[in-house]
Design a protein that fits this description.
By secondary structure, the chain is of the alpha+beta class. It has 3 domains: 39 residues, no CATH class; 70 residues, Translation initiation factor 3 (IF-3), C-terminal domain (Translation Initiation Factor IF3, 2-Layer Sandwich); 188 residues, Methane Monooxygenase Hydroxylase, Chain G, domain 1. Helix content is 57%, strand content 10%. The chain has 10 helices and 8 strands. A 4-stranded mixed β-sheet has the order 5-6-8-7, with helices on one face. Strands 1-2 form a two-stranded antiparallel ribbon. Helix 8 packs parallel to helix 10. The longest helix is centred in the middle third of the chain and has 27 residues. The protein is flat and about 85 Å long.
Length: 334
């Protein structure tokens, strides 16, 4: 990436700056050309060679009743790659009712993607949200709020010895996945469109960080679902300690995401310290469980401890995404 330095000049009441001649030539600009200038959220500016609107990206996916799994994955892939219009087209035989229903259920899992045309031989959907109006941080916060609700439901189920909330938590996880797909689509689009990245105030490192952090949150959702599916809460002899560990996990999540969004390194270090306390509780449960003569109960306890630890590690990983503060000191002569 080339970088230029220019001095501001004043002509009359206007402050002017010259553009690099090579940039002007390579974009076929001349006197009188109109170029858009965006003021970004961080008060920097981005200059673009033309006002041309982005071309609408379309893709057509061929329908085959024998490979519906692949077709659905292609729809998800096209969405994540930023395609605006996704068409599913059948050539020889019409799309069956069952396959049409499955395709539409897949489309409904993708935020902003709506069906605009449909008949027996094709289904067309279009992404109707304006990427310029989306906010990566707000989507991440939405994911975090859903995850907090999922985990809280799980903890309340342990307290009340209720084992029938699997569907509720799985449904909440589906919404986490919807927000995750939307965030991945947004940051991939920003990666390919520097103008959009500028409007969203996302640097290349921000894009990478959001992608990794979103993945940690999505994984946490899957792990919470796994934990909720363990139907052995009522037989545990260590419920109180598991609740203590769960309380720490809940606080770790709150602080980790707040530290990441606020770029607060000191708060991220608190999360790491809390994980040490969490580990102490989990290890005490494992030690006590090892002395239990009931082998099946020991396995159940260890599985639950492992599942809870995977969730806790997600929040440590999120906290680790906060950039460390580097203090520069003057070099001393040897």
């Amino acid at each position: 990436m080339a970088r230029y330095v220019r001095r501001l000049q004043q002509i009359g009441s206007s402050i002017l700056i010259s553009l690099p001649s090579q940039w002007v030539k390579s974009n076929n600009l001349q006197k009188g050309s109109i170029i858009p200038i965006d003021v970004n959220r961080d008060n920097s500016i981005s200059i673009f060679p033309s006002e041309n609107t982005s071309e609408i990206k379309e893709i057509t996916i061929q329908y085959s009743p024998a490979s519906m799994e692949s077709l659905v994955n292609q729809v998800y892939g096209a969405y994540l790659l930023g395609y605006d219009i996704i068409r599913i087209r059948a050539s020889n035989s019409p799309i069956s009712f069952e396959d049409s229903d499955r395709i539409k259920r897949a489309i409904r899992k993708l935020v902003g993607l709506e069906i605009i045309e449909e008949d027996r031989f094709h289904i067309s959907s279009q992404f109707l949200l304006d990427p310029n109006t989306l906010d990566a941080e707000k989507i991440l916060r939405r994911m975090n709020s859903l995850l907090a609700g999922m985990f809280r439901e799980m903890v309340e189920a342990v307290k009340s010895k209720e084992n029938s909330l699997n569907r509720i938590i799985a449904g909440m996880d589906d919404e986490v996945d919807r927000q995750y797909f939307l965030l991945v689509r947004l940051i991939r689009s920003a990666m390919m469109d520097q103008k959009l990245a500028g409007k969203l105030n996302l640097s290349n490192i921000d894009i990478l960080d959001y992608r990794i952090t979103a993945n940690h949150l999505e994984s946490a959702g899957d792990y919470i679902v796994d934990l909720a599916e363990m139907q052995n809460f009522t037989v545990l002899k260590f419920t109180d300690k598991f609740l203590q560990a769960s309380d720490l996990v809940e606080k770790m999540q709150e602080k980790a995401v707040a530290a990441y969004v606020g770029r607060n390194r000191s708060e991220s270090l608190v999360v790491v310290a809390m994980y040490s306390k969490f580990n102490e509780i989990i290890n005490s449960i494992k030690d006590a469980s090892a002395a239990d003569s009931d082998h099946r109960s020991t396995i159940a306890v260890l599985n639950l401890a492992y599942a809870l630890d995977r969730i806790a590690r997600c929040w440590v990983d999120v906290a680790d995404m906060v950039k460390p503060v580097h203090l520069t000191a003057p070099l001393k002569n040897a």
